[in-house]
Automatic annotation (TrEMBL):
PANTHER family: CARBON DIOXIDE CONCENTRATING MECHANISM PROTEIN CCMM, CARBOXYSOME ASSEMBLY PROTEIN CCMM. SUPFAM superfamilies: Trimeric LpxA-like enzymes. It comes from Thiobacter aerophilum. This is Carbonate dehydratase.
Length: 186
């Protein structure tokens, strides 16, 4: 469902993107080329700051927002999801937040008030808040990071982990093509 927010902002979705009919996109949301937005995802840009303004939620080209993901912004803050990025099932990305290109965010992970650098991996059930994850970092499953100082204990992404992330992104790019091909058959 595509709908306006109380300010009247309406999502803009590239023609080549696929948005599942059960997903909700509300407000100042921009969805790039070949993006996959899975069932029951909620992407909502509707809160304003004290001046009545808000930054957008931007989903970069070739990214995938999987089943049950929630992306929202507090008090007008924005969210930017880079290109070729995977946000896995039931994750929460709460702005202000910036996620780089070719990033993998694992199942049930939570990002809040942070940035995640290009090529990084945040595995399943992890929390990343109030910090800046440099490019190429690997955050293992169930780890909670609450400051830049805690990042010193995190190891760099290994090639096999990066390969897994790319395979997820590629699988979802193929889903966009397939669902767009059968779009009118539902």
């Amino acid at each position: 469902m595509i709908r306006k927010n109380p300010r009247g902002d309406l999502p803009v979705v590239a023609a080549s993107a696929f948005v599942d009919p059960t997903a909700i996109l509300c407000g100042k949301v921009f969805v790039g080329e070949n993006v996959f937005i899975g069932p029951y995802a909620v992407i909502r840009a509707d809160e304003v700051n004290e001046e009545g303004d808000m930054e957008p939620i931007i989903i970069g080209a070739n990214s995938n927002i999987q089943d049950g993901v929630v992306i929202h912004c507090k008090a007008g803050g924005g969210v930017i999801i880079g290109e070729g990025t995977s946000i896995a099932h039931r994750s929460i990305v709460h702005g202000p937040c910036r996620v780089g290109n070719n990033v993998f965010i694992g199942f049930n992970s939570v990002l809040f008030n942070c940035s995640v650098g290009d090529g990084s991996v945040v595995r399943h059930n992890s929390v990343v808040e109030n910090c800046s994850v440099p490019p190429g970092f690997y955050i293992p499953s169930t780890v909670n990071i609450h400051s830049d100082a805690e990042l010193a204990r995190i190891e760099r992404v290994s090639p096999d982990v990066a390969g897994f992330s790319e395979s997820v992104a590629e699988a979802n790019r193929e889903l966009v093509k397939g669902y767009n091909r059968i779009r009118n058959e539902f």
